[in-house]
Specification:
- This protein is an alpha/beta fold and about 500 residues long.
- The chain has 2 domains: about 375 residues, Glycosidases (TIM Barrel, Alpha-Beta Barrel), CATH 3.20.20; about 100 residues, Immunoglobulin-like (Sandwich).
- It has 19 helices and 23 strands.
- The strands form 6 sheets. It has an 8-stranded parallel β-barrel with strand order 1-2-5-11-12-13-14-15. Strands 16-17-18-23-20-21 form a 6-stranded antiparallel β-sheet.
- A hairpin with a 6-residue loop joins β20 and β21.
- α11 packs antiparallel against α12 and α15 runs parallel beside α17.
Length: about 500
C-alpha cells in the first residue's frame, strides 16, 4: 500500500445482498463480484478494502439479534416495513474462522483476493481475539479457553451456562454491558493463546492485513483488571501481540495490522508492533472540540501521527451527516483525510447516508445524497495526488488578520510538500466567518507565483509581493475548507 493509504470499509453481507438484487443472481458469491465494482474502488484511489464480517455466522448471535429490542426499535423508526429475515448475527460473534458458506467459502474469498491484488488493492479482514460466539463449539470442548466458573456466579448477567453445566463469561468491555452473544477468551491461559495464534496463522493466506478488534481488551493489565478475580492463571510475562506480529512480518513483510484501540492506549499498542491504530481522539475532537484542541492533538510525536488511522465514520460511529451536520462533516473530512496516517472511509459515508444502521442489518445503503457523492468524488480525486502520499507533511500556523481579530484561532492549516509541488490545506473549523494570514513557504522571487484552489477549479490567486513576504490574507466562511496547489 502507499504511504498514508486509503482504506474502504465494506460490510460483506450488505455488499453481496445489493449485488445479488441488482444482478438478479441469488447465488452470487465473493468470487463473482463484477469487474466494474473492483475498478470503481481502484479508480477512487483506494489502496485496500476492509471486508467486514466474512466469517461464519453464529446461529445463536443471529437469534439474539432478531429478538434484540434496541435493534428492532431502531429499525422500526429508521426502516419502514423492515424484515427480520434481513437481520444476521453480529460480525464479531464469530462461530468459526472460515468464510461464510453463503459467501462462497474460503475458495471464493481467495478468488476475490487475487482479483483485488491484480488491481493493486489489498484485502483486510477481521480478527476478534478477545472473544468468540457463545455457541462456538470450543465452549463445549475446551472450557479452559474461556473465562469460566464451575459454580453459579454471583453476577449471573456476566455469564451464560453451557449444556455441560459450567458457566462462561460473555465478552466484555469494562465500561459497557457484556456482549451477550459472545464468550470471553481467557487471555492468560497458555492453551487459549496458542489457539488464537494458530487461528491467526490459519487465516493469513486469505488476506493482506487484519483489523484487530478491541485490542486493548487483550492487554495483560486490562484483562487482569477486568477478569483478575475470576481467572486462576498468573499474568503472562509478555503481551500476546509482539511475537505474533514479528513472526507474521517475517513470513509476509508487507502484511498490515490495524488495531481498534481506545482509552489513550494508542501509542502503547503501536509499540507492540501494530502498523496503525484507531485515532478516536481526533474523531472526538473533530466532533466536539475547537480548532485549537484539534491542532494540539496534531502536535504529538510524528511517528505516532504516521501510524494513526484517521476516520470520521466507521460501523460503530453515527453517520457523519447526522453526527456533524452537512458542512461540518465536509470540513471534518478534509481535516481527517489530509493528515499523515492511514485514512478510513465507509461506503455509506461516501453515499451520504444519514443513519448508521446496525451491522446486523443487511439491506445496506438505501439513499444517495448527491451533494455528498459529488463532494467525495472530487475530494478523493484531490487526495489521490502523489503529494499526499509521498510528500512531507508540516503544520502551518496562521496569523491574525489584524490586532483586534482573534478568529484566526478557528483556522487549521498544514501543507504537503513534494519536490516542486506544495498542497496547502486551510480549514475554518468553526460556525462563524474567520480570517487569517496564511504563511507562504518556499516563495521564489518569480512574480508569477500562482495558487490554484482545488474545490473551486476556476479560483486562482496571484499573491502580491507583500503577500509573498508576509503571508496571504484569507477570509473563510463557516466550516469552509480550501486546498491550494502551488508549483515552485
Amino acid at each position: 500500500m502507499r504511504t498514508n493509504p486509503h482504506i474502504l470499509e465494506i460490510n460483506a453481507h450488505n455488499w453481496l445482498k445489493q449485488l445479488r438484487e441488482r444482478l438478479g443472481n441469488k447465488k452470487l458469491t465473493l468470487a463473482d463480484v463484477p469487474e466494474e465494482n473492483l475498478f470503481d474502488i481502484k479508480s477512487h484511489g483506494f489502496d485496500a478494502i476492509w471486508l467486514m464480517g466474512v466469517w461464519q455466522e453464529s446461529p445463536a448471535s443471529r437469534a439474539i439479534a432478531r429478538q434484540d429490542k434496541a435493534i428492532n426499535d431502531y429499525l422500526a423508526k429508521t426502516v419502514p416495513n423492515y424484515d427480520k429475515k434481513d437481520i444476521v448475527g453480529s460480525q464479531y460473534a464469530i462461530y468459526d474462522y472460515s468464510v461464510n458458506k453463503d459467501f462462497g467459502g474460503n475458495a471464493a474469498l481467495l478468488t476475490l483476493k487475487k482479483r483485488l491484488n491484480d488491481f493493486g488493492i489489498k484485502l483486510i479482514l477481521d480478527f476478534a481475539g478477545n472473544h468468540l460466539a457463545k455457541d462456538n463449539p470450543l465452549t463445549l470442548t475446551n472450557k479452559e479457553f474461556f473465562v469460566h466458573m464451575d459454580d453459579e456466579p454471583k453476577e449471573k448477567e456476566l455469564f451464560f451456562q453451557t449444556d455441560k453445566g459450567y458457566w462462561i463469561a460473555h465478552g466484555k468491555d469494562p465500561y459497557f454491558p457484556s456482549w451477550t452473544d459472545t464468550a470471553q477468551i481467557n487471555q492468560f491461559n497458555p492453551k487459549a493463546r496458542a489457539f488464537l495464534k494458530d487461528t491467526l496463522f490459519k487465516i493469513l493466506p486469505l488476506c493482506d492485513g487484519l483489523r484487530c478488534d478491541m485490542v486493548m481488551l487483550m492487554l495483560n493489565k486490562v484483562f487482569r483488571d477486568t477478569w483478575g478475580t475470576v481467572v486462576k492463571e498468573e499474568t503472562p510475562s509478555e503481551e500476546f501481540w509482539p511475537q505474533i506480529i514479528s513472526e507474521v512480518k517475517n513470513l509476509y513483510p508487507s502484511f498490515t495490522f490495524l488495531a481498534e484501540v481506545y482509552w489513550g492506549m494508542e501509542w502503547e499498542v503501536q509499540e507492540l508492533g501494530f502498523d496503525y491504530t484507531y485515532d478516536k481522539i481526533l474523531y472526538d475532537r473533530l466532533l466536539l472540540s475547537t480548532a485549537q484542541d484539534i491542532q494540539g492533538h496534531l502536535n504529538a510525536e510524528h511517528l505516532y501521527q504516521k501510524r494513526s488511522l484517521r476516520f470520521i465514520a466507521n460501523h460503530d460511529e453515527e453517520a457523519p451527516l447526522t453526527a456533524f451536520g452537512r458542512e461540518k462533516s465536509k470540513a471534518a473530512a478534509v481535516a481527517a483525510y489530509t493528515l499523515i496516517g492511514a485514512r478510513l472511509f465507509t461506503i455509506s459515508q461516501l453515499y451520504g447516508e444519514e443513519k448508521r444502521l446496525p451491522i446486523q442489518y443487511t439491506r445496506g445503503i438505501r439513499v444517495k445524497n448527491e451533494d455528498m457523492l459529488s463532494f467525495y468524488k472530487q475530494f478523493l480525486d484531490i487526495i489521490n495526488n502523489p503529494c499526499f502520499h509521498g510528500g512531507q507533511w508540516t503544520i502551518k500556523n496562521p496569523k491574525p488578520a489584524n490586532e483586534k481579530d482573534s478568529s484566526f484561532k478557528n483556522i487549521l492549516c498544514w501543507a504537503w510538500t513534494q519536490q516542486t509541488t506544495q498542497k496547502i490545506i486551510v480549514i475554518n473549523y468553526s460556525s462563524v466567518p474567520s480570517k487569517c494570514i496564511m504563511p507562504l513557504d518556499k516563495v521564489p522571487s518569480d512574480e508569477n507565483l500562482i495558487l490554484k484552489e482545488h474545490f473551486k477549479k476556476n479560483e486562482t490567486i496571484l499573491p502580491s509581493a507583500q503577500a509573498k513576504k508576509e503571508g496571504l490574507l484569507l477570509d473563510l466562511l463557516p466550516f469552509e475548507a480550501k486546498i491550494f496547489s502551488v508549483d515552485f
